[in-house]
Amino acid sequence: MGVGKKKLCCGVTSIFIVIIVIVILTLAFTIFKPRDPIITLYPGSNIEVTSFLNPTKNITLDSIITIENPNYGVFRYKNTTSSVTFRGKVVGEAPIMDIYVPPHKKRNMTSPVAIMPVRLIQDPHFWIDVAAGTLNLTSTVLMSGKVIAMNIFKRPATLYNSCNITVFILSKKSEAICESKLKV
Ligand SMILES: *[C@@H]1O[C@H](CO)[C@@H](O)[C@H](O)[C@H]1NC(C)=O
Ligand SMILES: *[C@@H]1O[C@H](CO)[C@@H](O)[C@H](O)[C@H]1NC(C)=O
Ligand SMILES: *[C@@H]1O[C@H](CO)[C@@H](O)[C@H](O)[C@H]1NC(C)=O
Ligand SMILES: *[C@@H]1O[C@H](CO)[C@@H](O)[C@H](O)[C@H]1NC(C)=O
Ligand SMILES: *[C@@H]1O[C@H](CO)[C@@H](O)[C@H](O)[C@H]1NC(C)=O
Q1: Ligand 1: which of 52, 54, 57, 58 to mutate, judged by most atoms within 8 Å of the beta carbon?
Q2: Which residues, including other chains, have CB under 8 Å from residue 174's CB and lie 6 or more apart?
């Protein structure tokens, strides 16, 4: 009799242990191993080639940045500045506002990308590319923040984002292809 009870008790205990392990593993994989947010940049299309001829004035591209959070946790980032480069040289910057992206949601923010013509026109490659009709810029940023799950679990997280921006000189249109990597 006594032996039977002991077996029953231990059976129930091990079932509880298995359930707890499954819950912890599920939490670990869904919350603490977050997927990379998807960042899309819609660069402004207001670039005039003549603007480059005035090196004392910055060119501002009014751009939209969309951040999509594919996770169960909230993302919260501090404001920072993205740097814009041409052939590896910094030619501009873009402010990134602090942002809070709820789980499975998208958030848009506007960012006036400032390009300094004075930095570009000194580069002979710039004129070659303009003559060829496309100007390729790259923006990179490291955003530091937190991943928050169920208001209790908080982990510092760093998001690295890089976008290749192509400006089509004649049509004044521009497009960007981005990649993002999250580190927790
Ligand atoms: C151009 O932008 C840079 C970087 O944002 C800034 O430091 C500089 O003062 C700006 N220049 C002008 C003329 O607005
Ligand atoms: C972030 O925002 C604060 C308050 O608005 C401001 O003082 C700070 O300069 C900003 N930092 C960056 C990197 O833009
Ligand atoms: C965010 O901006 C993009 C590009 O302009 C637009 O297509 C989308 O509808 C916007 N989304 C929201 C939620 O405002
Ligand atoms: C700019 O980037 C586009 C797309 O990646 C590419 O087709 C083009 O050759 C590049 N232009 C220059 C001048 O590097
Ligand atoms: C941007 O361009 C560089 C050089 O061509 C390439 O290595 C990188 O993968 C591109 N990034 C994206 C997000 O397409």
Answers
A1: 58
A2: 43, 44, 45, 47, 61, 165, 166, 167, 168
Q: Check if 106 has its Cβ closer than 6 Å to any atom of ligand 3.
A: yes
Query: Which ranges constitute the DSSP H helices of 55-142?
Result: 117-120, 124-132
Testing ligand 3's pocket by substitution, the residue of 41, 62, 63, 64 carrying the most ligand atoms inside 8 A of its CB is 64
Q: Distance between CA atoms of 173 and 79, rounded to whole angstroms?
A: 28
93-121 pLDDT, tens digit per residue, is 999 999 889 888 999 999 999 999 999 98
The predicted-structure confidence for 151-166, as pLDDT tens digits, reads as follows: 677 788 899 999 999 9
pTM: 0.80
Specify whether the CB–CB gap between 111 and 63 falls below 8 A: yes
Gap from CA of 40 to ligand 2 centroid (Å): 23
> Please, what is the end-to-end C-alpha distance for the chain in angstroms?
52
